Predict the structure.
Amino acid sequence: MISRIDVSDAAKSLIKTLSDQHGDLMFYQAGGCCEGTQPQCFEKGGFYPRMNDAMIGLVEGYEFWVDRDLFEYWQYSHFTLDVLEGFGPGGFSLETPLGKTFKIHYRLFNEEELKELAPVIRY
């Protein structure tokens, strides 16, 4: 199966720091509005996905959810979770006090990858 999401080394390091501080985590990629499309990191259970949101995979063992409408737009894309220095458009995500922000890099799957994609889990 082809994974729908990967994690950069910088993001892995930050996830380790956050999980040491906060325990189990979860990620949610919104479809716009207040936080734009910045991936958000919460304590597990600190955010509830909506009906039909898509869990596209695990990052370092933690669920990564995507807004149902955003997933329909990006369903043929591979996500790579990365981290940047600085503040994103909001302040709700756990990395914000550390002066960092999560970011997603996208690329389209090729035809062979599309045949082998891991299934998503719907809420």
Q: What stands out?
A: The CA atoms of residues 53 and 68 lie 4 Å apart. The beta strands are 5-7, 25-29, 39-43, 54-59, 62-66, 77-85, 100-108, 121-122.
